[in-house]
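[User]
If only I could read backbone structure tokens as easily as an amino acid sequence. I have put the entry right below:
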Amino acid sequence: MRADAACDSYVICATPRTGSTLLCDLLAATGAAGDPDSFFMTNVDPHWAACWGLPPDDPALGRDHCAAYLDAAIAAGRGKTPVFGLRLMHENLGDLTGMIDRVHPGLPSDRARFETVFGRVLFIHLARADKLAQAVSMVRAEQTGLWHAAPDGTELERLSPPREPHYDFAHIATRLDELAARDAAWTDWFKREGIVPLTIAYESLAEDPAGTLARVCHRLGVAAPSRDAVKPGVARLADAISRDWMDRFRADASNGR
């Protein structure tokens, strides 16, 4: 742990399509705030696991294996900095706390588990106020296969071959309910654990990435880059199609569809 800084680590507590990739990239680009990513997923991509130096995630291998996994994830999440960064979706919270519990059994709470392994933790609640826009974004990503693109249009993350998107009321409604429930679950967890997170809205992050980054750096106790030096590497994918789907969804919902 570092006695000269506010935090030893941070956890970006997010749900899909809230700008977590943008925030992770901005923090990594500072060169002082770790190299955050999703190290604790139920099924980590083997390519990324190899890049991060993670051993296979097999709880059956016991305490030593879990300890090695945690050590490797912390090293990857620190990068070449003293600060550990982690992106965590609520559905993976149990995977992480279960792993910690196998290494450090008997701790009284999830908060104690995090602090035992990661030191002084800044919890960041990254949420999206417009849940319908979030659901539409997720459905389009699932349909088209494109999850992230650079400002110049270059594809950054594609998970399936290109397909044309199509409006699907039921699919959007399902994702809307799921995303709202997952975000509410984070809020309930913070209350239960006695955590007051730094709350960041996707809308604020998208409109003012430099200002949002400065807020996080201030809380971490690291120097923020100048506003001119902040260059977001992830573009918004919302467009006229997204707006049309939102209008159609509201109309269909009001008609009792």
